[in-house]
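Researcher: I'd like a structural prediction for the single chain below. Treat it as a standalone chain; there are no partners to consider.
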Amino acid sequence: MESFLIEHFRKIVPLDESEAAYIASHFTYKKFKKHQFVVQEGAPVPNSFLVAKGSLKSYHTDDNGKEHILQFGFENWWITDFYAHSNETPATINVDCMEDSELYCLSLQDREKLCAELHKVARFFLTKANNGYLAQQQRILSLLNSNARERYEQLLLLYPGILNKVPKQLIAAYLGVSRETLSRL
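Model: Treating it as a single chain, here is the predicted structure.
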């Protein structure tokens, strides 16, 4: 599985074998069961996670018990409570597994160490952060400017296999519509 991790980096930055081994030595590989929390609201967030297998969701539950999906995490995606992780504060969201998942875990300290020592790693994470920011911006603009049908069609275009991986009630929560509205779409 270590080759998955290294190939993930090599899609953005070239690495020689010693750099690859050094980077890999800072990650831990863990398996999580379906419905297991990776990040839980109110708890510390020591790691960010690269999804090797499986699928996850990050979400906030409001005072009425309604779940608001912020992000899904599929293979090759990074997921955590990025704010809490970066600022070393308690989590304000939950991240849990929608199916059995395998994740590479990276602590904030190890990430900062790698970025300071290897400029390639800093460039990798800058690229990932920029791409994540752009995707979040597009999602917010879609929520502000598109109707439910347009958001649904855009989701299917961006993630063609999502209907096979994610229950419809979670897709509805991600789109900000009811399950009934999603069924009509």
